[in-house]
């Protein structure tokens, strides 16, 4: 029996005696027992804000229309990664290559199921529902994101087209990065990392005043990039998030972030004429507001608006061009009005997006979401677009998705997105899947999903050239035209079919699928045959002017396996494998298209929690040979092993952790994406304090 | 907390009987009417009053009159102290009623057990004329709900705070006899909430919430439910509101059910020279389930009625 109650009973008896004898004795004084008298009926009966609203509840993976990989906090921590894209090595079917090529260095070339370039644009990437790919090339400048890895709660990767939910660009896969809410964050956190080529420090503060919970993170990152490349980055950033519970049914969320810093650009081995090694400045910011309104127990409305701005201030002056032109004609060389050309490669992109969605349940069997959004992207890129105008790209969307569960064993998902944009007009991307769950631990999925990829500015609107005037009448201008887009490129189309299994066998969680992706109207950059210049302009590359166009079709077929094995309570093994082949089904693909995804990729991560606060993880990544597109080179089989050891400690004031990470433990020489991207063994130590 | 119910009740009964034998003359103050004192006219209180009156009417065996006082509308609580049984709805009402003449029997409803204990001592009242139907469901009942809803759950996480930490032994004892492995973390500061919760979720199959004014509040409901959801671990709440907010399931007693029990006590105690039974757990209960959460966590659960029936069968109730 509870000692408290024993004392109460004894006290009562004694008090009864005393009371009977008409002598007052303060029981509390006589028995100084502290009781919890701060609990009231309100703690049991009081209304609580609805936390897991229909919009917050995601579909169970067993009911999902697509294959999903979840990278949670524990996995992020165990991986020892300091850059977000490194985590995608744990996603079966994904290729990750750190690349320091021409511009935006080092950026990661990340793509799913091939078709990867230095500027890949076939994935939708969202941070808390905000689309972060750049309108310029449709990909993500990963290091420019105002986000700290420590604020990320989980990353959900939908493998396969997901346009019905996320629109065009959710072509090959969708990456949804979710940060932790301020209310889940410790009051103060300091994180510092020191290691080969990398130093960074972050400070985060979280608090709550009344119904407002907030979090502010600031940080400085010094990244020396890859070995022997001019790709250093010095980045300062700040990010803030605030949640305001207006009342039981209304919730407001705000986000704000900014980044700025210097970047090393240009590598003489790749370009020793125009874009020479130099330092550029970048800065960006974004603001987001979201209103969540609970209409009923089973119905939520959400309105979200955000604006983002990104600027890259890049100027360059070429080498003396006279000796080069002299190879064509010494007279022409002598007639140039200047020795070199100056290029203003400033790029400013902005995005404004407003989206409304309504999620609701109909009875016990139907869950549906529908909504609409409008977006405007603007791009100012005088060098790339060939003019000083700010180009506008408008996008309107209407989407709907229904999950119907007629029986506990069956789930039918259907959905579609109707889109209209300035480049390709109106299109629709439907999707359907049928999930069969004969047992709560075993589910089979048969799915078909289509998506479109809208051509990006590189493919649709680039007019990139180098021009230098002469003192002559003819030619008055010497021109090298790099890209001269004809425009009117159709969207690239994918229809993906898959048969998947999601289940649990003892301690092993298994996700396996076989898939077949049919890609038509493939967009590529190819020689433009009809490019003409005025008679008084000398085009130095008449057979080498590119344009974006649709050409060829392909099929990607293979299987993927994802396992999570809980070996006892302290040990865990993640094991992922993909095997696929790309076939050309209609002529016209670029030369290395079918080699743009390694046939086999393997990733494994073993984590073990030792006693006394020690834990360790060992990761292994392997991918077979590949030749990536757009700036990529043939690279051979790569093998890499990373190790992380950590020690947690707790004092009454601090919770903390010290960890050490070694990447490429065996110092295996390997190249990623292109032959110039090498990374030798690197080590880092990391200290984290929560207080 | 109504903890380890059997032992608790046995001990309490022993003390009660002893007190009764020794001091019967002190208690005797037969009541002919009932005054219901409400802390405030909340929905649950009003529903209680209505259901209580109906129960008395249906009982026929009694002619107890019912008066209702809304504490938020009177300056001073005035009750016909020598002829009334006072049923206090809510902590504030119970506190005010505890200051009435010591001979006036007071039955608290909508009161947490720790608060009742505290009032009992502070008011210098005695069991026998001061009792309650507490809000806390017995742990045995809470464990049978978890067993019924999630039969495969073995490791249960329990996060305790200053109010609830003394319950640990009872939770462990009852939990282990129900074949659960109880994993526990205790916190003294709200800043420790998430780290300890995260540790707990890493090793538990589900989390069982225990009322505590530091751990389970209106402010912490979001981080607790979100963090648990992210770990894909269900939470078993202790109230209907917790289930609405996002817990998977809870046992609770509705105002009607509490009114039924209170009516039974009122009638029986009148016949027993107005001596109230010891504080007791809710006898009648319902089960609240959150099907949307279940669906999202890929947990297949039976219909509420089926689970209710199973639970009743487990307790030997019809």
Supply the number of helical segments of chain B: 12
Tally the beta strands of chain B: 11
Q: What would you give as the CATH superfamily of the largest domain in chain B?
A: Response regulator
H/E order of the elements of chain B?
HEHEEHEHEHEHEHEHEHEHEHH
- Number of β-strand runs of chain A: 38
Largest interface: A-B, 74 and 80 residues
Fraction of residues in H or I helices of chain B: 40-55%
SS summary, helix count of chain A: 9
Characterize the main sheet of chain A.
Answer: 22 strands, antiparallel, barrel
> How large, in whole angstroms, is the Cα Rg of chain B?
20 Å
Distance between the termini of chain A: 37 Å
Beta-strand content bin of chain A: over 45%
Q: What is the CATH architecture descriptor of the largest domain in chain A?
A: Beta Barrel
Number of domains of chain B: 2
Contiguous runs where pLDDT drops below 50 for at least 5 residues of chain B: 1-10
The domain tally of chain A reads: 2
Helix content of chain A: under 10%
Strand content of chain B: 15-25%
CATH topology of the largest domain in chain A: Maltoporin, Chain A
Arithmetic mean of pLDDT of chain B: 87
Describe this structure as you would to a colleague.
The complex is a heterodimer of chains A (about 700) and B (about 325). Chain A has 9 helices and 38 strands. Chain A has about 700 residues and is mainly beta. Chain A has 2 domains: about 40 residues, no CATH class; about 550 residues, TonB-dependent receptor, beta-barrel domain (Maltoporin, Chain A, Beta Barrel). The longest helix of chain A has 18 residues. Chain A starts with a helix and ends with a strand. Chain B has about 325 residues and is of the alpha/beta class. Chain B folds into 2 domains: about 150 residues, 3-Layer(aba) Sandwich (Rossmann fold), CATH 3.40.50.2300; about 140 residues, Rossmann fold, CATH 3.40.50. Chain B is built from 12 helices and 11 strands. In chain B, the strands form 3 sheets. A 5-stranded parallel β-sheet of chain B has the order 2-1-3-4-5, with helices on both faces. A 4-stranded parallel β-sheet of chain B has the order 7-6-8-9, sandwiched between helices. A two-stranded antiparallel ribbon of chain B has the order 10-11. The longest helix of chain B is centred in the first third of the chain and has 23 residues. Chain B is globular and about 55 Å long. The two termini of chain B are about 25 Å apart. Chains A and B meet through α1 and α3 of A and α1, α4, α7, α8 and α9 of B.
């Amino acid at each position: 029996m509870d000692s408290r109650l024993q004392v109460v009973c004894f006290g009562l008896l004694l008090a009864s005696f005393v009371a009977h004898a008409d002598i007052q004795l303060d029981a509390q004084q006589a028995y100084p027992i502290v009781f919890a008298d701060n609990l009231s009926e309100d703690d049991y009966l009081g209304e609580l804000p609805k936390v897991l609203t229909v919009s917050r509840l995601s579909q169970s993976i067993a009911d999902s229309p697509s294959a999903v990989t979840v990278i949670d906090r524990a996995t992020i921590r165990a991986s020892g990664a300091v850059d977000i894209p490194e985590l995608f090595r744990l996603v079966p079917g994904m290729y990750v290559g750190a690349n320091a090529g021409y511009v935006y260095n080092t950026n990661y070339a990340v793509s799913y199921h091939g078709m990867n370039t230095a500027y890949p644009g076939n994935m939708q990437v969202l941070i808390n529902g905000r689309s972060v790919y750049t309108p310029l090339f449709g990909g993500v400048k990963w290091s420019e994101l105002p986000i700290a890895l420590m604020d990320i709660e989980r990353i959900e990767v939908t493998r396969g087209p997901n346009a019905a939910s996320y629109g065009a660009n959710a072509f090959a896969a969708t990456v949804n990065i979710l940060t932790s809410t301020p209310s889940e964050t410790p009051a103060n956190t300091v994180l510092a990392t020191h290691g080969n080529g990398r130093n960074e420090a972050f400070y985060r503060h979280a608090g709550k005043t009344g119904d407002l919970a907030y979090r502010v993170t600031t940080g400085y990152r010094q990244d020396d990039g890859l070995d022997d490349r001019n790709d250093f980055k010095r980045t300062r950033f700040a990010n803030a998030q605030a949640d305001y519970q207006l009342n039981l049914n209304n919730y407001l969320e705000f986000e704000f972030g900014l980044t700025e810093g210097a970047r090393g650009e240009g590598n003489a081995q790749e370009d020793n004429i125009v874009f020479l090694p130099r330092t550029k400045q970048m800065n960006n910011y974004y603001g987001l507001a979201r209103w969540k309104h609970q209409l009923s127990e089973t119905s939520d409305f959400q309105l979200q608006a955000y604006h983002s701005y990104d600027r890259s201030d890049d100027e360059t002056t070429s080498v003396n061009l006279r000796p080069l032109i002299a190879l064509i004609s010494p007279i022409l060389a002598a007639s140039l009005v200047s020795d070199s050309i100056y290029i203003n490669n400033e790029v400013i992109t902005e995005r404004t997006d407003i989206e409304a969605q309504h999620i609701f349940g109909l009875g016990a069997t139907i869950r549906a979401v529908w909504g609409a959004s409008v977006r405007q992207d603007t791009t100012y890129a005088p060098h790339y677009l060939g003019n000083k105008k700010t180009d506008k790209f408008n996008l309107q969307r209407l989407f709907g998705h229904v999950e119907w569960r007629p029986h506990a064993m069956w789930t039918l998902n259907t959905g579609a997105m109707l889109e209209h944009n300035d480049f390709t007009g109106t299109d629709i991307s439907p999707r359907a899947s049928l999930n069969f769950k004969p047992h709560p631990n075993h589910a089979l999925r048969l799915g078909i999903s289509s998506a479109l990829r809208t051509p990006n500015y590189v493919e649709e609107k680039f007019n990139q050239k180098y021009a230098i005037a002469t003192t002559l009448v003819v030619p008055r201008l010497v021109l090298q035209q790099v890209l001269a887009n004809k425009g009117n490129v159709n969207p690239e189309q994918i229809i993906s079919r898959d048969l998947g299994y999601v289940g649990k066998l003892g301690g092993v969680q298994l996700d396996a699928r076989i898939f077949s992706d049919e890609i038509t109207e493939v967009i590529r950059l190819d020689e433009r045959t009809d490019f003409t210049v005025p008679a008084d302009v000398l085009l130095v590359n008449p057979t080498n002017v590119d344009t974006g166009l649709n050409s060829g079709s392909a099929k990607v077929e293979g299987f993927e396996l994802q396992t999570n094995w809980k070996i006892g309570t302290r040990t865990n093994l993640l094991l992922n494998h993909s095997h696929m082949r790309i076939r050309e089904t209609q002529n016209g693909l670029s030369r290395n298209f079918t080699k743009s995804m390694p046939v086999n990729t393997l990733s494994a991560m073993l984590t073990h929690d030792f006693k006394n606060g020690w834990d360790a993880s060992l990761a292994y990544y392997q991918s077979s040979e590949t030749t990536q597109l757009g700036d990529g080179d043939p690279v051979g089989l790569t093998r890499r092993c990373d190790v992380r050891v950590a020690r947690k400690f707790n004092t009454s004031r601090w919770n903390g952790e010290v960890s050490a990470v070694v990447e490429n433990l065996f110092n295996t020489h390997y190249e990623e994406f292109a032959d110039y991207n090498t990374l030798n063994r690197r080590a880092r130590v990391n200290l984290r304090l929560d207080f | 907390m109504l903890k380890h119910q059997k032992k608790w009740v046995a001990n309490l009964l022993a003390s009660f009987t002893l007190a009764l034998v020794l001091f019967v003359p002190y208690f005797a103050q037969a009541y002919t009417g009932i005054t219901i004192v409400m802390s405030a006219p909340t929905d649950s209180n009003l529903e209680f009053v209505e259901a209580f009156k109906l129960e008395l009417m249906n009982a026929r065996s009694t002619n107890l009159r019912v008066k209702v006082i809304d504490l938020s509308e009177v300056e001073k609580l005035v009750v016909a102290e020598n002829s009334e049984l006072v049923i206090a709805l809510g902590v504030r009402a119970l506190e005010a009623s505890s200051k009435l003449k010591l001979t006036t029997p007071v039955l608290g409803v909508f009161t947490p057990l720790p608060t009742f204990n505290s009032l009992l001592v502070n008011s210098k009242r005695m069991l026998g004329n001061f009792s309650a139907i507490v809000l806390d469901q017995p742990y045995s009942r809470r464990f049978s709900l978890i067993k019924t809803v999630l039969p495969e759950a073995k490791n249960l996480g329990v996060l305790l705070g200053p109010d609830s930490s003394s319950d640990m032994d009872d939770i462990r004892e009852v939990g282990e006899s129900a074949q659960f492995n109880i994993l526990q973390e205790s916190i003294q500061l709200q800043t420790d909430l998430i780290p300890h919760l995260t540790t707990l979720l890493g090793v538990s199959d589900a989390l069982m919430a225990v009322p505590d004014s530091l751990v389970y509040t209106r402010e912490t409901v979001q981080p607790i439910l979100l963090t648990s959801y992210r770990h894909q671990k269900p939470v078993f709440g202790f109230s209907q509101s917790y289930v609405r907010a996002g817990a998977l399931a809870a046992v609770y007693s509705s105002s009607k059910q509490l009114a039924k029990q209170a009516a039974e006590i009122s009638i029986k105690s009148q016949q027993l020279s107005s001596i109230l039974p010891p504080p007791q757990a809710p006898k009648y209960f319902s089960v609240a389930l959150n099907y949307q959460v279940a669906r999202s966590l890929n947990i297949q659960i039976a219909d509420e009625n089926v689970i209710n029936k199973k639970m009743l069968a487990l307790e030997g109730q019809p």
